[in-house]
Amino acid sequence: FTISRLARADLLEALQKSLAQSVAGDLNRKDWIDTAEKLLKNAGWWGSKEVTDPRTGELLKTRFNHARLQLIFDTNVRQAQAAGQWQRLLRNRRIHPYARYVCMDDDRVRPLHRSWHNVTLPLDDPWWQTHRPPNGYRCRCRIIWAVSYPPLTLPTICSVESSVVHGEFNSKDS
User: Does the CA dihedral 85-147-102-116 come out positive or negative?
Assistant: First the structure.
């Protein structure tokens, strides 16, 4: 578990624990953000702060505010939900051996993710190892069970060399 430019292990641990409580249903989004804000304020990490990059020694600016906490919460909850969904799919693969990639199909979807919309493959297909959502910040894509496996031709953009493997994401698109 990590949060970019948060260099205090005790704060990371506390935030991770509270996120786990939220995923378990003990804290809603607003309560988690309020708790995290109070924790960061008490530790002197609220607002802008300069930190030293331990690898380069470079002085970097970081900011913890309401928007950043929303992003941290949303990213971690989506990752946890996606991991849980993948485990459910794998547990039931004998009955439902196929999965379908589904994007929100609106004007905020990244073109790359749109090209994967409705791709349906067996759960053991290697494609899933590099294309399981979330695929970048604020990705709203998901995987659902599919009852059949229509033979689909994958777009060439979906090859292993695609930009998703190399981490090229446009954070303003979803």
Answer: positive
